[in-house]
Each structure stands twice: as C-alpha cells, then as structure tokens.
Amino acid sequence: MKAIWNETKEYDLTSGKYVKIWQGPQHPGVTGNMSLELLLEGDEIKWLKTHVGYLHRGFEKLMERRKFINCFPIVCRICVPEPDTNEYLFAAATEELAGIEIPERAKWIRALNLEMARLGATIMGLGGQSGSFGLGTIGQWAVAHRDFLLDSFEELTGGRIYHMYIIPGGVRYDLPEGFEGRLEKTLVKIEKLISDIDKVLFNNAVFKSRAKGLGIIPKDWIEPFGITGSTARGSGVNYDVRKDHPYLIYDQLDFEPNVGTDGDVYARTEVRREEALLSIRLIRQILARMPKVGPVRTRIPDIMHWKIPAGETYVKAESGRGEYGYYMVTDGTEYPRRVHVKGASYTHAMALLEKLAEGVTNADIFGLMVSLQTCPPEIER
Amino acid sequence: MEEMIERIKLKFNAKDINRQKATLVFFSVEKKDLEACVLYMKEFEGYSNLTMISATDWIETGTFGLTYHLHNYKNRTDVGIKTYIDRKNPSMVSINTLWAGARVFERELKEMFGIDFPGCPRVDDPFALEGWDNLPPMRKDFDTVKYSEETYFPRPGRSTKDNVTQMEEKLYAVEAEVKKGIAKTVRKNK
Questions:
Q1: How does DSSP classify residue B48?
Q2: Partner of A11 at 20 to 30 A CA spacing, among A65, A180, A323, A371?
Q3: Segment A78-81 long-range contacts (CB within 8 Å, at least 24 positions apart)
Q4: Does B127 reach chain A within 8 Å, measured CB to CB?
Q5: Which residues in chain A have Cβ-Cβ distances shorter than 8 Å to B52?
Q6: Helix or strand run (H / E) with residue B185
Q7: Is the CB of residue A85 less than 8 Å from the CB of residue A117?
C-alpha cells in the first residue's frame, strides 16, 4: 500500500541553487511559537519541516503528579484562544469515570460557554487569516470584537482568557442577572463585524487571487491525515462532532454544519465565516431554550481526596479548529495515571502542512499555515 | 457493534473488552496481532480514521500499554485497540503506511517514551525536545523535580521566606533605592 506522504527528496545545498531559511519561532501572525524550516528555489518552497517545542511545558506529565481538581489550571492553558474545550473535556472524562451526572441547566451553561469560546476563536482566526495576507486592519477589528466577548467571559467566569469555569459536577456559578441582554448586544456587534469582513475580505481582489487555489486538500486526504473540523469541511467532508456525536445538549439544537467544496484556503476561510454565524445562532438558541432555573452544580466528593475508580475513556468535542479529544486512564488513586490530549491541529500542522507546502511560494506559506488553524501549544502539550 | 466485537474475538482473540459507552469500546490484542487487527478494522470494519496513538507507562508490570484510537465515520463509533509491549526493550511495528498521520504520533512516542518504530520515516528526528540526552521524559521513572534541580540553578530569593521589604533591601538594593526615589519625587510634587 502506497502512502500519500512523499519522501523528502535530497537536494544539493552546496549547488548555490537553493537557499534555506527559517520562518519563526516568532511569527507576525496569530499562530504562536512554531518554526518552519524552508528550502527555497527562487521563491518556491521545495520542502518544509515543522519544528515545535518552543511552548513545551510538559502539561501531560504535570497532570500525572496533580490531583484531579489541580489539573484545571493546567488544561485550560493547552489552547489559548479557546480554553473552555479543554476544561469541558477534562471535566467530562473525570465525570464519566467517576459516574457523576450533572444537572440539566449546567449542561446548557456549558454549551453556552463552549459556543462563546468558539465564536471568539473563530473571529480571531478570521482576523489572523486576513492578517497573514497583509490585510492587517481586519485583524485589529477581530481582536477588538473578541474583547467584547472577553468582557462577557469576565462577567460570567471572572477570567478573561483562562476561565476555569467548567468543573467536575457542573459549572462554578449561575449566569449573572441581565447577562443574556448584554451578551446579545455583543452578538449584534459581531454580526456587524462579519458583514464588514464580507465587504473587505471576501470581495477583496488580492485575497481572492491569492487564496483561491492555494493549499488544496483533496477529499481523499482527509482520512490518511486524520483531518477534522473546518479544514475537513472546507474540502466537502461533513463531519462535525456536535452533530455526529452529540454531547451536552447539542442534540436539542437545530443546526447544520457548513460544508465547502474547493478545499483551498478561500473555501476554508468561508467555512469559518459561516461557523462564526452558526455559533451566534446557537448561542441565541441556547439562551432561548435553556431551563431558566435549576441547580448548576452537583455535589462531588472531597476534591482533595477524590479517588476515581480505575478505568479509561476517550471523550471528544468540536473545538473551533476541529475534533478535540482527551484519553484518560485512571488507576484508582487520587491522581490520573495518564492524560493524552489530542489537539485539533496536531496532524494538520505537522504532517499536512509539510505535504501541502511543496510548490507554494514563500509569501503564501503564512496564509496556508493559518488556514490549517495550527496551534503550537496543543501540538507539544 | 456487538457483531463486530464477536468477530474480533474470533479472529484476533481479543481480551479485556470494555464497552465504555454506547459508541466506544476498548479491547486488547497480542502484540503480534496488532498490525493485522488495525488493518482489518480499517479495511473491513470501516474504522478508517486514526484519531491518535497513546502510550501509558505501567511501570509495576514492566510494560507499556499502547492504545490505537480508530473512528468509524459511517456508524459513528470509536474503538481503542490496546496492546502491551515490554518496557525494557520497547519496539513496535510502524503503521505509517496505513495512515500518513501516524508518523507524527510515532515520532512523538519515540521521543517521549522511547518506544522504537523501525521503518517509520524521520522517527529519530527530535519532536519537541531538541538536544535531549536524558531518559524519555514521559516515563514514570523520570523524576521531574530531580531533573529541574540539577539542570536549573535555584533563583535567589526562592528558598528564603523573607517578606517583600526585606527582599528588596537585601537582594535588590539598587532597584529598591530607585523605587523609593520615585515615590519621594511623587510625594514632593503633590
């Protein structure tokens, strides 16, 4: 059986024909610290190697030495723009292994929290995508509008970036009074932002000419590379964990994931634009349908001496960048035996980017990298 | 799913079957059967997506547990195929020809646990830790506290329990002087 991945060809670096340059680890884009080693012939990339490790803090190892509740300040730091997915998955895995059922209202609030985080990450991703093609103004707009969402997060959870709001047994607090109205105002602002982005990004001749046809992912690459999320949906694969494996209350919401056809950077950006609008619709649905009163937390054992029975599980959720998964093994002690995090962009940034970069020009590599939604902290954990 | 479990039991003598959820099952097979089992699941049972490869260090029994997580898009189920390999000389057959993405997982396992995957391209390239010459760090016998004490010298002030004022006067006298000077000027101008 022939693998899709081409072997790295040998190039004579002393011939004077090629030049090797490093892009990163400090990037002008929004992806974070990741380094790309490029071999160029003229302006064309012959091969690319991704180097990670600049953000390695050994989260998985740290978790093995901490009690379950002490892991929450760690897991949220695995993904900066969207920490809530990690909190939810860690909580869901511990609850599943400990046999805890959470109250109905807590499920709705968790879903609300996850969708708010998705929305923030998606609009920041849109800004990053346009910034990588030299349209920096949209990036400024996007980050400013994300800040309005961070205000809502601060009101709801007490934290702006890292929330630690979802805990085993439910969520920390109930919604503040009048929160729905204030969140709705932010949603209206973000809708306006997206209509502005339509005018200046999707109708922009420069963006169209550069993004169309760049980094095309054929449909039959999805499985060999394990591509998920909007990257897969941009290539026409309709796979969304919220729809296919409904968790929390997603089976009670009406929505249909957006699917593109072309599989290039333009299609992926369009899918992300639709996803931002979908998150807004879902937040409105959740606020309208959630039970208005009820407990938001269930009683759990003494958290500092909480022994979870031996077992293992794999839980997953749809983050803004694709399928996120947590594999947790417990051995009946107060500490997790092993926690393995499957970041959404794990294979995107390593295997897929190295494959797609062949033949791309040096100027377009950032646009391609951002379109795959790479996130270094979740690669190296 | 029940039928699939029966077939796996017959074909590969699957043990430790754990129906964790309606859509998730874990089972373990012998090391020699693993590649055939993974290939069978991919080609005949529709588990065409490799989600990830995880390793767990079972230092008490002297083994590493490897778990191959596969996903089926059609019936929307997941399986975790487990196998146990010897901890002293850990080596496992590579599945990089079945999934291109497996190369990244195998490369990480080589670095973090020291499990070798002969035949996997670039498996010896460093993943996140360039220039690492110690025990693979995700192993249970790697002592993180000892490593950090040996590698990084203790920062001054960390070990003492002095209060802030004493810290300023003893350790950062120049900075404290500047700070006091600024405060004095501000007071004067008021």
A1: -
A2: A371
A3: A78/A341, A78/A343, A78/A377, A78/A378, A78/A381, A79/A319, A79/A343, A79/A375, A79/A377, A79/A378, A80/A32, A80/A161, A80/A375, A80/A377, A81/A117, A81/A120, A81/A121, A81/A124, A81/A125, A81/A320, A81/A375
A4: yes
A5: 325, 327, 340, 342, 346
A6: helix B173-189
A7: yes
Over chain B, what is the mean pLDDT? 87
Q: In the prediction, which pLDDT does A6 show? A: 55
Q: Are B144 and B161 members of one domain?
A: no
* Structural tokens at position A224: 């060999």
Put simply, the answer to whether A3 touches B26 (Cβ < 8 Å) is: no
Contact B127 A53 (CB under 8 A): yes
Does B148 touch chain A if contact means CB atoms closer than 8 Å?
no
Q: B146 is written with which tokens?
A: 């000892």
* B35 and B60 inside one domain: yes
Domain CATH code at residue B92: 3.30.460.80
Q: Residue B84: pLDDT above 90?
A: yes
Instruction: Clarify whether residues B166 and B187 are in a common domain.
Output: yes
The residues facing B21 across adjacent strands are B24
Query: Same domain, yes or no, for B23 and B70?
Result: yes
Q: Same domain, yes or no, for B149 and B161?
A: no
Same domain, residue pair B113 and B55: yes
B137 at A interface, C-beta within 8 A: yes
Q: What is the pLDDT of residue A144?
A: 93
**Amino acid identity, residue A102?**
I
Same domain, B145 and B162: no
Which pLDDT does position A1 carry in this prediction?
41
Domains observed in chain A? 59-380 (1.10.645.10)
Could B137 and A327 be called an inter-chain contact, meaning their C-beta atoms sit closer than 8 Å?
no
Tell me, what's the ipTM? 0.90
Question: Given a cut of 80, is residue B49 above it in pLDDT?
Answer: yes
**A219 touching B, CB under 8 A?**
no
List the domain range (segments joined by +) for residue B168. 157-190
Q: Are B137 and B129 in contact (CB under 8 A)?
A: yes
Q: Is residue A175 within 8 Å of residue A152, measured between CB atoms?
A: no
Contact A225 B99 (CB under 8 A): yes
Q: How many domains does chain B have?
A: 2
Same-domain status, B146 and B184: no
Give dist(CA A227, CA B101) in Å, integer: 9
What H or E segment, with its residue span, contains residue A48? strand A44-51
CA A333 to chain centre: 31
Tokens, residue A32: 């974070």
Q: Which of A2, A65, A223, A259 to mutate to test the interface with B (most CBs of B within 10 A)?
A: A223
Residue in the block written with tokens 């898009």? B73
- Enumerate residue ranges in chain A where pLDDT < 50: 1-3
